[in-house]
C-alpha cells in the first residue's frame, strides 16, 4: 500500500509539470504577442502603439528572454500564487477568479453527487433485473442521456422552466454560506443539466460492471450459504462492481469541468466558465491561461485522489 | 474434356468474386437481424451522409437565403407550416434548409477530425506500445498531462488563440481526441505484440515498421472502426458546443451548434422552434453513431458479448 501510494505520488509530479508546460505552450501559439495585446487592451488598433512602447514593455515583461527562462519565471510566480494580471480587467487574475472558482466547484460537486445518487441504483436494478422492462427502460434512458448535447438540454430546461412552468430562479447570485436555500434553487437546474450525461454514462458502467461481477463464483457461494439476496447484491456484488465505476467517474470529472462552461453560460451562473468565455471575447489570454491552469490542476488532483482511494478500496492493489 | 476443364476454371474464377459480394450482403443482413438497434444507428448515419451529399438539391431554400414572400414580407420566426416545415429563424431563413446544410458541416468537421485524428493517434498508440521502454513512458506521461485538460477547454483555448474557422475547429477536436484513442490502442497492442505471429515475423527478419504496419495494425482494425464510430459522434457534439459558445464556425456558416446560439439568447420565447430542431438533429445523429458503435463493439469484441449495455 505504501509503495503504491509513493509510486502514484511520484508519478503525479512529472504529470503536473508537463501539464503546466502544455498550458504555457498554449499562450505561445497566439499569433502576435502578449506585449502588443496588453498595450492595445485587446482592441485591434495598431495606431495607438509606438514601437518604443512595445520594446519597453517587452523588456519589463521579460518577453525578450529565452523561452525556458520565461517558463521558469512564470512557473515560479504560479507557485507563489500569482497568476498574473488580467489584460482586460487590470486586476490580479486570482482576485477575479476566487469567488467564481468556488461557484464552479460547487456546481461540479452537486452534479457529481446527483449523477452518482441516481446512476448507481439505476445501474444495479438494471443488472439485477436483466432483460425485464425495467432494464430496457433504464438502458434506453442511458442511451438517450449520452447522446443528448448538454447545451441543448440546458436550453430546453431554461425554456421549459421560464415559459411553461413560469418559474425563474431568484435573481442575484447568493453564496451557499449566506443563503443556502436560495443558492440551491439557483444551482439545482444547472447542476442537473450538467449531471445528465454523467448520470447516463455512469449507470451504463454500473450495469455492465455489476453483470460481470454477478457471474463470479463467489456470488454462487454467497447465495449457496443462504445469504439474503439484498446482502448478496449489496455486500458481495456492488462493493466489487463499484471499483470501475469510481475510476470512470474520475476520468469523467474533466469532461464535467468542460461542460460547466456551457451550462454556466446558458443559465448565467457567475462561475469560471462565464469568465472563460468573457476572456476569449476580450482576448484576455492571461485570464484564459489562469483558468485553464486551475482546471488542469483540479482535474489532476481529483484523479490522484481517486487513484489513491482505489488503493484503499481494492485490497489486491494494497497488498501487491 | 477440354470444355469441362475450361468451364471448371471459369467457375473457379467466378466463385470468389460471387461469394465475396454474397458474403458481404449476407453479413449485413445477419448484422441487421442480430443487432436491430445497430442497424437503426447505421441507417441514421446513411441518411445523414445522403442529406449532406444532396443538400443543395433537397433543401427548399438556400442556407444563407433570407426569404422574401410575394407580398414583400420577410417571415421572421415563422412557426412550422406547409411552406416552412421547421419554421424560420430570426432573420427569416428556412430552418429545414439550414439543418440540411448543417449536416454537411457536421459531417465535414466530424469526418476530417476523426479521419486525421483517429488515424494519427491510432498509429501513435501502436508505436508507443510496440516501442515500449522510455519512448512509451514519455508518450504516456504527455498523454496523462493532456488528460488534465478537458477536450472542450483545450479546444476553446486553441480556437481562441488561432481564430475561429472550420479548420481550426478540426485541429482543436483532433487534439481533444488524443488521450482516449492512444490509451485504448496502446493497451490492445501491448497484448498483441506478445503473439506468436509477431515473434515469427521478427524471427524471419521483418523490420519493426513492417511488423507494426503489416502485422499489428490490421489486427486492431476492429478497435479502429469502433473508435472512429464513437468519436464521430463526439466530434459532432464538440463542434456544435464550440459554435454554440460563439467561437467555432463563423456565424454565417449553418452549423447546428451555431444555430442554437441565437435561440438561447432571449429569442427562445419568440421562436422556440429555432431552438428545438437543430438540437434534435444533433441528438439523433449522435444517438445513431453511438448505437452503431455499440453494435460494432458487441460484434467485434467477443469479450464484451452478452454484457453489452
Task: Briefly summarize what is shown.
Chain A is mainly alpha-helical and 320 residues long.
Order of helices and strands of chain B: HHHHHHHHHHH
Oligomer state of the chains in this structure:
heterodimer
Uncertain spans of chain A: none
Structural class of chain B: mainly alpha
Strand residues, percent of chain B = under 5%
**Most residues in contact: chain pair:** A-B, 62 and 49 residues
- Residue runs with pLDDT of under 50 for 5 or more positions of chain B: 1-17, 304-309
**Count of distinct strands of chain B:** 0
Spatial separation of the terminal alpha carbons of chain A: 8 Å
Helix and strand composition category of chain A: mainly alpha
Gyration radius of chain A, rounded: 24 Å
Proportion of residues in extended strands of chain A = under 5%
Task: Name the helicity range of chain A.
Answer: over 70%
Query: Given the C-alpha coordinates, what overall shape of chain B results?
Result: globular
Task: Give a written overview of the molecule.
The complex is a heterodimer of chains A (320) and B (309). Helices cover 78% and strands 0% of the residues of chain A. Chain A contains 13 helices and no strands. Chain A has helices spanning 2-28, 34-40, 51-61, 67-79, 93-128, 133-147, 150-164, 180-213, 217-224, 229-267, 272-281, 285-313, 315-319. The mean pLDDT of chain A is 82. With 309 residues, chain B is an all-alpha fold. Chain B has 11 helices and no strands. Chains A and B meet through helix 1, helix 6, helix 7, helix 8 and helix 10 of A and helix 4, helix 5, helix 9, helix 10 and helix 11 of B.
Fold topology:
The complex is a heterodimer of chains A (320) and B (309).
Chain A: H1 2-28, H2 34-40, H3 51-61, H4 67-79, H5 93-128, H6 133-147, H7 150-164, H8 180-213, H9 217-224, H10 229-267, H11 272-281, H12 285-313, H13 315-319
Helix pairs in contact in A: 1-12, 2-3, 5-6, 5-8, 5-10, 6-8, 7-8, 7-10, 8-10, 9-10, 10-11, 10-12, 11-12
Chain B: H1 2-34, H2 36-58, H3 95-131, H4 133-147, H5 151-162, H6 166-192, H7 196-203, H8 208-216, H9 221-244, H10 256-264, H11 272-300
Helix pairs in contact in B: 1-2, 2-3, 2-11, 3-4, 3-6, 3-9, 4-6, 5-6, 6-9, 7-8, 9-10, 9-11, 10-11
